[in-house]
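User: Sequence recovery, please. Input:
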């Protein structure tokens, strides 16, 4: 599993947070936000690193969001990899509903009751109006993982998606509890173009990497780990 490279949305969120604004200035729908220039270089570094590995992937499943598709395309091109790429909407970013495009300050000031409800329920089960909870994301992640297992049993699969998807895949595959996956989340942000992977000795999934930034460090590229927007409701 790979989180997409740094996006223009990550950069815009950082600027809005630093200026204490309520809203993030984005020219696109969230699903249309492209990679930043750095994000493009990160994706290319990922591709070159992947081409050097012995266990190179044989197929790619990717979120329909532009930043994820650009990451997959640039990585495949830079690595000279001959891979089929399958777009699946179940790998999309968590939907934020009415909180879409708001900063931490904006969520508290525009929707104070919703902010309080989230604090009471916790981030795993809080579903903003018109949006999704982490538990909702888990439902679609379970479905897409079942299909990957049935369609790609003998393949080495790379999934290019988003921060919450990476975390929820761990929750599903490892049979975690709410408390366990949130403990992993508190360890730090999932870095852009970081790699999380499993091997299956005897058919049992075994975590071999989590949030490793070797693809960037070994290619002398900048590591970033900005949260997706809105920050406070990831």
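Assistant: Recovered sequence (234 residues):
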């Amino acid at each position: 599993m790979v989180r997409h490279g740094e996006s223009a949305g990550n950069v815009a969120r950082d600027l809005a947070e630093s200026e204490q604004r309520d809203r993030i200035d984005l020219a696109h729908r969230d699903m249309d936000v492209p990679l930043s220039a750095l994000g493009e270089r990160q994706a290319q570094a990922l591709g070159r690193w992947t081409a050097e590995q012995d266990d190179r992937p044989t197929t790619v499943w990717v979120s329909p969001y532009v930043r994820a598709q650009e990451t997959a395309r640039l990585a495949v091109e830079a690595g000279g990899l001959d891979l089929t790429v399958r777009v699946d909407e179940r790998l999309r970013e968590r939907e934020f509903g009415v909180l879409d495009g708001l900063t931490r300050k904006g969520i508290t000031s525009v929707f104070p009751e919703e902010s309080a409800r989230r604090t009471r329920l916790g981030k795993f089960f809080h579903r903003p109006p018109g949006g999704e909870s982490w538990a909702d994301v888990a439902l679609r992640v379970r479905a897409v993982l079942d299909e990957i297992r049935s369609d790609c049993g003998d393949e080495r699969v790379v999934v290019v998606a988003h921060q919450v998807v990476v975390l929820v895949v761990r929750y599903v595959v490892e049979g975690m509890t709410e408390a366990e996956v949130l403990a992993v989340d508190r360890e730090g942000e999932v870095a852009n173009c970081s790699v999380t992977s499993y091997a299956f000795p005897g058919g049992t999934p075994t975590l071999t990497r989590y949030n490793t930034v070797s693809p960037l460090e070994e290619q002398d590229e900048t590591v970033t780990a900005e949260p997706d927007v809105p920050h406070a409701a990831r």
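The domain at 2-95+133-227 is CATH 3.40.50.1240 (Rossmann fold).
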